[in-house]
């Protein structure tokens, strides 16, 4: 989905920050905040849960909520060895500022070296199979270690993000989509504008790549900025067909029978002035 069109700073004006471009809350934003808080409190009470953070806009909101509520929920980040410098800098700041522990998981170095020796540094561009093999080594294997012994995990999935995520529910127990665990998605009903309203009003630290029209941020070789009117995830694996753009961490969920008609829209880079953006 593409997002509502936004006007860029025109003429010789300085470029606007993401907090200026995308801060467009829904009319029921406060209710969505309370819903997210309640779900995180429930997850903490049930125990055995951890937050999976890519350090993207949604995830920094969730980590901020966890800290603000004083919840016993650890956070983990998959440091693939290919992240942007800006993401690594944010990781350091997050570890220093977060009350909740932030643990880093890295891929097995031997597997990375063998993959590069066999297929080359840029193998991901040659085929979907090789790209997914790279994701498996750099993301999926470390994810398995991060989730070992856990009952559930918390993600920043939102329905607005892509067609494949349109049925995401607040709580997902479908085995394939959740790696056999309970998956909590506290921002499932939030719009991109809701996410950035929270970041703006709470002063949450975020990745400066968002200011340069990177709404979805992954590994550096596989992420680019998006253009006005492009889909929210158009900058991820942009050389592939639209329906292939997942790495395996999040598999398409079954339709959520409890959804309450949360808003939809997806952000495009410059999309955010008079009409409000999404993500």
TrEMBL record:
Keywords: Cytoplasm, Iron, Iron-sulfur, Metal-binding, Oxidoreductase. GO terms for molecular function: 4 iron, 4 sulfur cluster binding; adenylyl-sulfate reductase (thioredoxin) activity; metal ion binding; phosphoadenylyl-sulfate reductase (thioredoxin) activity. GO terms for cellular component: cytoplasm. Residues 50-225 form the Phosphoadenosine phosphosulphate reductase domain. [4Fe-4S] cluster binds at residues 134-135, 219, 222. PANTHER family: 5'-ADENYLYLSULFATE REDUCTASE 1, CHLOROPLASTIC, 5'-ADENYLYLSULFATE REDUCTASE 3, CHLOROPLASTIC. This is Adenosine 5'-phosphosulfate reductase. It comes from Caldimonas thermodepolymerans. The gene is cysH.
